[in-house]
Amino acid sequence: MDCTNLIAIDTHTHAEISCWNPFDNYGEEYDRAADKYFRSSRRPTIQESIDYYRERKIGFVMFGVDAESQLGRRRIPNEEIAEAAQKNSDIMIAFASIDPHKGKMGAREARRLVEEHGVKGFKFHPTVQGFHPYDKMAWPIYEVIAEHKLPAIFHTGHSGIGSGMRCGGGLRLEYSNPMHLDDVAIDFPDMQIVMAHPSFPWQDEALSVATHKPNVWIDLSGWSPKYFPKQLIQYANTLLKDRVLFASDWPLISPERWLKDSEEAGFKPEVMPGILKGNAMRLLGLAA
Ligand SMILES: [Zn+2]
């Protein structure tokens, strides 16, 4: 990634549709409920996202969410995202997502994706994948990530997926309590852990864990900065200024809206270069 020409690096964007696989309509009710909750049904292709980001000179990290075990839905191939990132390496970095229920087979896949497809990190979603982050089931995958000293993003806090569905679609919010990552951070000191989103209703837990464990970071995706809890802004301005990351959750929130709304959110001007770009460069091991 050619960082000098970029105004920012967005560390959290989603691949929502595959151009390799036919659409899997199994479990489509989760999509319809999410459309309603997020008041948007926009699902750009990977190429459309690349064009959007390149035009705005914003680098980005992209991933899917593999929840095949709990949802029974085919995932977007990690290789499809990785190939797009390799062809567009000026602007794009691929993370992979592997359902932790895949255990050692998942760990083999993780290794192959890192060593042969240039994947630079991993995304987990405890609520949608249906696992406790400290469950030993996930360790074989964490071990591969730690061995390569790569970052792992974990969804934290409330989940829009399942919101408003009967029984919340059977998805457990509690798995996404950021306090669970405290244990993971102790056992995997070489894995950089990114807590995604303001972790409502556990914002203070997230700030506490990130302040205590230097391998824990916070990404600011999924919400307009207008609605960030004030303690999150306060920590981003002070104790955690080197480990807080600009991130949108594209296509749910556009980076343009995020950047515009951040002007009114109370960030100190001097912390913004780090939040927008410098911290992500360190996390991702990108040269200046
Ligand atoms: Zn997300």
UniProtKB/TrEMBL annotation:
What is a single Pfam family found in this protein's UniProt entry? Amidohydro_2
Alphabetized UniProt keyword annotations: Lyase
Q: Which GO terms describe its molecular function?
A: carboxy-lyase activity; hydrolase activity
The UniProt entry's coiled-coil ranges are none
- Where the record annotates domain Amidohydrolase-related, the positions are 9-286
**CDD domains to which the protein is assigned, alphabetical:** metallo-dependent_hydrolases (cd01292)
Q: Write down the SUPFAM superfamilies for this protein, in alphabetical order.
A: Metallo-dependent hydrolases (SSF51556)
What protein name applies here? Amidohydrolase-related domain-containing protein
